[in-house]
Amino acid sequence: MSRAAERLRTVIHHLDGATATIRAPPTSAQTLTYSPPQKLRYSFDTGTLTPEQRLFYEENGFLLIKNLVSETDIDRFRKEFERICRQEVKVPGLIVMRDVAIAKSEFVPDQRAVSKLQDFQEDPELFRYCALPQILKYVECFTGPNIMAMHTMLINKPPDAGKKTSRHPMHQDLHYFPFRPTDRIVCAWTAMERVTRQNGCLVVLPGTHKGALQEHDYPDWEGGVNKMYHGVRDYDPDHPRLHVEMEKGDTVFFHPLLIHGSGMNQTQGFRKAISCHYASGDCYYIDVRGTTQENIENEVKELAQKKYRMNEVAFKDTWAFRGRLVQGERTSL
Ligand SMILES: CCCC(=O)SCCNC(=O)CCNC(=O)[C@H](O)C(C)(C)COP(=O)(O)OP(=O)(O)OC[C@H]1O[C@@H](n2cnc3c(N)ncnc32)[C@H](O)[C@@H]1OP(=O)(O)O
Ligand SMILES: Nc1ncnc2c1ncn2[C@@H]1O[C@H](COP(=O)(O)OP(=O)(O)OP(=O)(O)O)[C@@H](O)[C@H]1O
Ligand SMILES: O=C(O)CCC(=O)C(=O)O
Ligand SMILES: [Fe+2]
Ligand SMILES: [Mg+2]
């Protein structure tokens, strides 16, 4: 038996009970008798992921790829971020967020006032991130060949001002998304510098992607909570959590139901990461009225109405006009 077939058999051995399909290895009939068709529901076999990587994502809901984005590219993203902070470029549709602890302070025209950029799809330099071939190669394993970049962010987590407002409560990103199917959505999150527990790396609850979308709301944290930073209501403090420490350029891909957040930044530096949420172009919009997502729908619509100066904006339209095709065909979204 070939080495690849042997590895696949090991994987399948670990799988019992999972659902959906993994293609049989392209080998002889003899191999097939050893490995009956098995089910992996969260990824496709495109030749990129090893069976072990697919199994890891299946079980844990995330996958860390070391050293995926070059230093040169990251330095260019950082430069562009700085130009935006200095207001040397105007980017249509861009949302500049400030930490709740400094939002009310005097305007400072540099990064110290900015905690997050959202919706940089109209900035060609930052948007290059979303179309990097080495990122899309992995994204395709989760979305399939038609890929839409739906949500773009550059997070500049500030040093905590003493009120723990730099924390991001534990949440599932699907709470924000009115499109499905869930398993054809994935986030790519790239560390723009070394991220550690000290400066507020991502914290994940492995395996929670297998659960349902939970109710989210603002946590009642004493020091305040940033706008739109909803957290899961019934957070289980006993679930094992993992601090995902990463080097500059490392990229984590994660499922939209994976419960994650990030800790306080206890350093003096601004912890930077760039990310994009992708979905299959074949995904479809859903109506979230009457579901747990109604609270975020109302908040986003309110913001969109202010921002685009329109009377009534449908939640799904706020997504339809921000989404950009990065590979294949825009069949639906
Ligand atoms: C309607 C209601 C809706 C809601 O309630 S939504 C709320 C949802 N609930 C939550 O998000 C609660 C869960 N939250 C958390 O797990 C954390 O707060 C969260 C979001 C990950 C933030 O993390 P942090 O605040 O930074 O906490 P942390 O656990 O990372 O650090 C805490 C203490 O650990 C220390 N630490 C740092 N690096 C370490 C290291 N390498 N080894 C060991 N300890 C280390 C760190 O100094 C900190 O110390 P201290 O205990 O605060 O004194
Ligand atoms: N990260 C954030 N979390 C919570 N609220 C935020 C955040 N960023 C901005 N805001 C809020 O968005 C609004 C706009 O902020 P901005 O500082 O531009 O104006 P302002 O503080 O309302 O007005 P002014 O600075 O003229 O007094 C504010 O109400 C601010 O509190
Ligand atoms: O970079 C972080 O701290 C996490 C951000 C995040 O999870 C989000 O914005 O959805
Ligand atoms: Fe998130
Ligand atoms: Mg202000």
From TrEMBL:
Gene Ontology BP terms: fatty acid alpha-oxidation
Domain of life: Eukaryota
GO MF term list: L-ascorbic acid binding; metal ion binding; phytanoyl-CoA dioxygenase activity
EC number(s) on file: 1.14.11.18
Pathway assignment: Lipid metabolism; fatty acid metabolism
Assigned protein family: Belongs to the PhyH family.
Gene Ontology cellular-component annotations: peroxisome
Enzyme kind, highest EC tier: oxidoreductase
Listed InterPro entries: PhyH (IPR047128), Phytyl_CoA_dOase-like (IPR008775)
Source organism (scientific name): Xiphophorus maculatus (Southern platyfish)
Cofactors required: L-ascorbate; Fe cation; ATP
Pfam family, one: PhyH
Lineage, uppermost ranks: Eukaryota, Metazoa, Chordata, Craniata, Vertebrata
Catalytic activity: phytanoyl-CoA + 2-oxoglutarate + O2 = 2-hydroxyphytanoyl-CoA + succinate + CO2; octanoyl-CoA + 2-oxoglutarate + O2 = 2-hydroxyoctanoyl-CoA + succinate + CO2; 3-methylundecanoyl-CoA + 2-oxoglutarate + O2 = 2-hydroxy-3-methylundecanoyl-CoA + succinate + CO2; decanoyl-CoA + 2-oxoglutarate + O2 = 2-hydroxydecanoyl-CoA + succinate + CO2
Keywords, alphabetical: Dioxygenase, Iron, Metal-binding, Oxidoreductase, Vitamin C
Identification of the protein by name: Phytanoyl-CoA dioxygenase, peroxisomal
